Amino acid sequence: MRKFRIGLIISAVVVIVVQLGVVEYSDLSWSVNAGSYWGIISMILLIISMIYSNRYEKKNQTK
Questions:
Q1: Which domain, by its residues, includes 48?
Q2: Quick count: other Cβ atoms within 10 Å of Cβ 17?
Q3: Distance from CA of residue 35 to its chain's centroid?
Q4: How many structural domains comprise the chain?
C-alpha cells in the first residue's frame, strides 16, 4: 500500500506541474484560472494526506 501512496504523490506532483503550465500568467485572477487553482489545491491536499497516511502506517507497524 505504501508504494501505491508514493505513486499517488508522484502523480500529484506531475499534475501540479501540468496545472502550472496551463495557468494564464498574464491574468492571474480567480475567474480566469479557477480550474487550475482548484487542481493545484486538491493535489497539494492529496500529497499532504498521503504523507500523513504513510507516517501513520509506519508508526502502527512498529507496534
A1: 2-61
A2: 11
A3: 14
A4: 1
Q: Can you tell me the distance from the alpha carbon of 56 to that of 40, in angstroms, rounded to the nearest whole number?
A: 24
Check if the beta carbon of residue 9 is closer than 8 Å to that of residue 47: yes
**Could you tell me the pTM of the whole model?**
0.86
Please count the other Cβ atoms lying within 10 Å of the Cβ belonging to residue 35. 11
- Give the per-residue pLDDT at 62: 73
How many C-beta neighbours within 10 Å does residue 33 have?
18
Residues 6+ apart with CB under 8 A from 49: none
Q: Each residue of 45-62: pLDDT tens digit?
A: 999 999 999 999 988 887
- What nine digits make up the cell of 8? 499517488
What interhelical angle do 2-22 and 30-61 show, nearest 10? 160
* Distance separating alpha carbons of residues 5 and 51, to the nearest angstrom: 8
